Amino acid sequence: MRADGAARPRARQAGVPFDGEPGPFNAITDVASVEVGHATLVQGDSVRTGVTAIWPRGRSDTAPVFGSCFSMNGNGELTGAAWIAESGFVDGPVMLTNTHSVGAVRDGYIRWLVDNGRRPATNAGSDGFWALPVVGETCDGVLNDINGFHVRTEHVVAALQEATTGAVPEGSVGAGTGTIGYGHKAGIGTSSRRLRSPGPYVVGALVQTNCGKLQDLTIAGVPVGRELGRAPQAASAGDGEAGSIIVVVATDAPVLPHQAARLAKRAAMGLARTGSFAANGSGDLFVAFSTASLGDASQGHVAQVGMLANEALSPLFEAVVQATEEAIVNSLFAAETMRGVHGRTAPGLPLDRVQAILRRYRRLEPSTHP
Fold it and tell me: Cα(298)–Cα(89) distance, rounded to whole angstroms?
């Protein structure tokens, strides 16, 4: 796990050059009101999994946000996607977990709503409510006993209730506890960009990295994977065909659902910068939302809502690409070597070797923060 002050540096701190200006935490939580929480399960030799919750308006605010989703390659699951596409609303948190715990997390959130007297704002009928929670997944079955059904309601509640603003723990935490990327231990990563024009606005990204082949890993434009050669890889990790990634994009810019869809698509370009080509077995699913005010749009009234002109969106597109790329690299930098089920091991990315490679390509900069 990596939070502020941890031993393994974030990519910028290690001198990896990235374009764009990050926010103060260089995290999705630089978008005002966004909160992130993790529940991390590491038990014995075989449990390596968890839950991550991203609240667009914080857990105390039930108002929905305009949003959309995009499937780059659909060998994955994102519950609630059909209603997001239909309604244009993300109503509640975006939650992440492992492939075989999607149902448990979905049901756990509904249980949390019931137990706390909460209801989604878009369907607050007098006779109760229905909910279509948004839960994404990647498969952590190389390191985790994925068929052990270890994720339970209390873990969902912990991720929801412990969500905060500020620095976001990265690497082997929450839904990224058991994931592998580019032949090395990966996990959760995040980054942000501040825009001066149009704006000022902020764009943030959070990723659950579990994709890619070692030979394709690219950092700051450098073929790091090829240079690392046949470094030890996780047992049975294969060539990345079974991997996936979830990208959650947030902004405070006033964008409508169809514009949020355009932002979500640009996350694919940030993913491509790190070397992924969205293999047949990969689930590459992206969600984007805006925390800008909706007025009364969610209550069935005629409302005045603002939107950026299409001609003003290009800087946001660029910010999504940059933040997604850096978030993925951060997920690799933060994660340490992990041993899991059946004695399988995923090695942490050898940061000293990566820095040496970047230095050789004249792509290493003085350490920066955050």
Answer: 8
Averaged over 235-255, what is the pLDDT? 78
Q: Which two tokens stand for residue 329?
A: 């690299």
Contact 2, 10 (CB under 8 A): yes
Q: What is the DSSP string of 148-210?
A: G----HHHHHHHHHT-BSS---BBSSGGGTT-EETTEE--EEEEEEEESSS-SEEEEEEEEEE
Query: Residue 274 is encoded by which pair of tokens?
Result: 């790190």
d(CA 214, CA 365): 23
Alpha helix (H) ranges present in the chain?
81-87, 102-115, 153-161, 224-228, 257-273, 314-334, 351-360
pLDDT of 322-333, one tens digit each? Answer: 999 999 999 999
Known catalytic residues are 244, 282, 284
58 membership: H or E segment, kind and range: none
Q: In whole angstroms, what is the distance from residue 224 CA to residue 71 CA? A: 27
pTM of the full structure: 0.95
Domains located in the chain, CATH noted? 28-360 (3.60.70.12)
Q: Exposed, middle or buried by CB within 10 Å (0-12, 13-18, 19+), for 181? A: buried
pLDDT of residue 264: 98
Give the single-character DSSP code of 214. Answer: G
Nearest to 166 by CA among 38, 330, 32: 32
**Residue 341 falls in which region: left (phi positive, over 0), alpha (psi -120 to 50) or beta:** beta
Dihedral of CA 9/14/20/22: which sign? positive
Contact 333, 176 (CB under 8 A): no
% helix, strand, coil for the chain, step of 5: 30, 25, 45
- For the chain, count helices (H), then strands (E): 7, 14
